């Protein structure tokens, strides 16, 4: 699966030094500053489809990872709902999907957004999150445990870690798409070919490039009738303000001495390094004394690599199997 290869050590055309130089050049590109908002209303989508819903069951709220969006859970969300009669909802974090582009982009503010969403939702929920979404979900459960019935942590740990350099490389690839196609334009017919051509210099895997390109907005017409190309993520602002290091962080000061004593399921990809054995022995018991773990024969993107097992383990944890 391509998600496993996303973290493989395949060669790519530009060296790390080349990419770091291009990052400095890209930061000089004009990008309008984003508004500053303490919390925002998040965009969401009911993934349940036409499935019959049992209102006595707490809804499952699913939060995507970095560079993702709520549609990442469309298939598994519908299947979980069909097999459990449980409402499933995908939520877009700030600066992703259909949610607003605002700063700051950090875990403290994403947790505030999610708490605001859950307060407005008005019901206790099961919260599930992957990568960035996993840390947001953990923070919300620790800060406001009364809002969360159960928690599913998908391949991440409550610990500050440096993100793999490939995230930086792929962010730069998206920046270069916006910069080059802003300068030279494109047409609807050429759009995907042009985007793939530009990103290929940074990301060698065609399927990863397709995943990144799924974040493209529908192009709008410029004055010369060419297409203005932008992503649903404010990629130039992310690069300019060094957002990625924050995404590897963990704001421990916000949850010092906090615990979430309700059931927690930690899903770990065995070919991923986001959940180490030492995290399971020390960190998780500190925050989540009632956690259990299930291992996947997968990389970091376990939902996409093993969707059937993800659905099965989720249903088992929720008591819907």
From TrEMBL:
Matching Gene3D superfamilies: alpha/beta hydrolase
**Domain of life from the UniProt record:** Eukaryota
Give the record's keywords alphabetically: Hydrolase
Q: Is Protease a UniProt keyword of this protein? A: no
- Pfam annotation, one family: Abhydrolase_1
* Residue span, AB hydrolase-1 domain: 59-305
Asked if the keyword Hydrolase belongs to this entry, the reply reads yes
**One cellular component (GO) term of this entry:** mitochondrion
Q: What would you give as a GO molecular function for this chain, any one?
A: carboxylic ester hydrolase activity
Which protein family is named in the record?
Belongs to the AB hydrolase superfamily.
Q: Which PANTHER family match?
A: PROTEIN ABHD11 (PTHR46118)
**What protein is this chain from?**
Alpha/beta-hydrolase
Tell me which species this is from: Metschnikowia bicuspidata var. bicuspidata NRRL YB-4993
